[in-house]
Automatic annotation (TrEMBL), chain A:
Transmembrane segments: none annotated. Residues 171-282 form the STAS domain. Pfam families: STAS. SUPFAM superfamilies: SpoIIaa-like. It comes from the Bacteria. The keyword ATP-binding does not apply. This is STAS domain-containing protein. The lineage of its organism: Bacteria, Bacillati, Actinomycetota, Actinomycetes, Kitasatosporales.
Length: 301, 151
């Protein structure tokens, strides 16, 4: 298979070389024309020179790729030089509300000005040699389009991965409510990965704060199914092994009913309806009582 | 730790513990130290516990409880990296045996990683009382039965 590809390339190589030479020779003209195309014009709004400069580097990269003869290879090192720049341009278009399809159209629109220039190079645009070159250039521009889209997609994936990580960090704070009492307000759906993070940070906090009581507040958990209940019970069991008593609070009436309907047995878990009740329980077990300050004492302050 | 001064010579393992008689050393050359602090026995586990050692330890503890009148046993596992189902069973058996002799057992100092592993394995050690560290465990035992441990 590899052999057949190189055979094909060998046949087309003169065309590819010609296209490369053409892109080098006409780089300035191409860049000027591209600067008026919507992709460059809308990204580089400040000065036209910037757009021309960007067009020049893209044309240079295309020439480098054409010189290697691998017109349809999006991994060609020739693209490495402009990959960053294309990514920034794509991101900038994305911020303006242009989706992947719009971007693809804009990159496709870059082809017309170049093919026009190439056609003008030949005395007879219908000669086999001219057709050959035009085809090579078309393939090359198609590859450019793919490169731009691939850059956009991978940038999107990076963002998603980073945000997922941030979500895990942000979503599980452990708060010290009172001496030797810690609480975790759980927000959002509790899946295995998140419950693992919750468990780890809770156990670490129990050690750090020397906590006797740990409160898991599920006010912000939209639904409780058997899987979520299982995660909760695991966390409670782990906290107990560390010598802390665990209280699950924030069970709304609807959730209480769901748990009963599903037949989930939370019998081993201490539950309270609100965080306030859970804290009151923890305090009373520690022999702490909160009483209003008497009027005379308050006046003395 | 209160140090050896408060401990008395009878505090160290079976070989020098008078009442329990000449305890066998076990087949592995060394045993798990069992210290007596007042009315409480302190057992410090470290590293891995082999079958022979575990059996020896169970025997030591029950004999010590029977001959001295201790009311509580603290098992310190802060130096243990891996708790498997075998060690889990040994701990539960020690607690059950001590319970028959009217002594309460508290497991102290489990590491977070160990706790997570145990829970993932489904070993919640439901019958055992637990404490954050030895100090807390001593508090629990001296404070009396008010702290149940398991709900």
């Amino acid at each position: 298979m590899h052999v057949s590809v190189s055979d094909e390339n060998a046949e087309r190589e003169p065309a590819a070389q010609q296209v490369s030479a053409f892109l080098e020779r006409r780089r300035e003209q191409i860049a000027q024309r591209w600067a008026d195309a919507s992709l460059f014009r809308t990204v580089f709004t400040v000065s036209r020179d910037e757009a021309v400069e960007a067009g020049r580097s893209v044309a240079a990269a295309l020439a480098a790729v054409a010189a290697t003869g691998r017109l349809d290879d999006i991994r060609d090192p020739g693209f490495a030089a402009v990959r960053d720049q294309l990514g920034r341009m794509a991101a900038s278009r994305g911020r303006m509300g242009i989706g992947a399809d719009g971007l693809a159209d804009e990159v496709a629109a870059l082809r017309e000005p170049v093919t026009e220039l190439l056609r003008a190079e030949f005395p007879d645009p219908y000669a086999p040699e001219a057709q050959e070159c035009l085809l090579a250039l078309t393939v090359l521009m198609g590859t450019l389009r793919l490169v731009v889209l691939e850059t956009t997609v991978s940038a999107g994936e990076e963002v998603i991965a980073r945000q997922r990580e941030q979500l895990n960090e942000v979503a599980t704070p452990v708060i010290k409510l009172w001496e030797s009492t810690v609480a975790v307000p759980l927000i959002g759906t509790l899946d295995s990965a998140r419950s693992q993070v919750v468990m780890e940070s809770l156990l670490d906090a129990i050690v750090a704060e020397r906590a006797r009581f740990a409160i898991l507040d599920i006010t912000g958990v939209p639904t409780v199914d058997s899987l979520v209940a299982q995660h909760l019970m695991k966390t409670v069991a782990a906290a107990r092994l560390m010598g802390a008593e665990c209280i699950v609070s924030g069970i709304r009436p609807a959730i209480a009913q769901t748990i009963v309907h599903l037949g989930i047995d939370l019998g081993t878990v201490l539950t309270r309806s609100s965080l306030e009740d859970a804290l009151a329980y923890a305090l009373s077990r520690q022999g702490v009582e909160i009483a209003p300050v008497r009027a005379a004492d308050a006046g003395a302050r | 730790m209160t140090g050896p001064s408060g401990n008395g010579p009878a505090g160290f393992g079976p070989p020098i513990a008078g009442p329990s008689g000449a305890g066998p050393m076990g087949g592995h050359g060394f045993t798990v130290p069992v210290l007596r602090l007042g009315d409480i026995l302190l057992v410090t586990l470290q590293g891995e516990l082999h079958d022979g050692m575990a059996e020896q330890l169970q025997q030591d503890i029950t004999e010590r409880i029977a001959h001295t009148r201790v009311t509580g046993v603290v098992i310190d596992i802060s130096g243990v990296d891996i708790v498997d189902s075998f060690l889990g069973r040994v701990l539960a058996e020690i607690a059950a045996g001590a319970g028959l002799l009217a002594a309460r057992t508290v497991l102290a100092g489990m590491r977070p990683a160990v706790a997570i592993t145990l829970v993932e394995l489904g070993l919640t050690l439901a019958g055992l009382r637990t404490a954050l560290d030895v100090e807390r465990a001593m508090e629990m035992l001296t404070a009396g039965e008010q702290d149940g441990g398991s709900p």
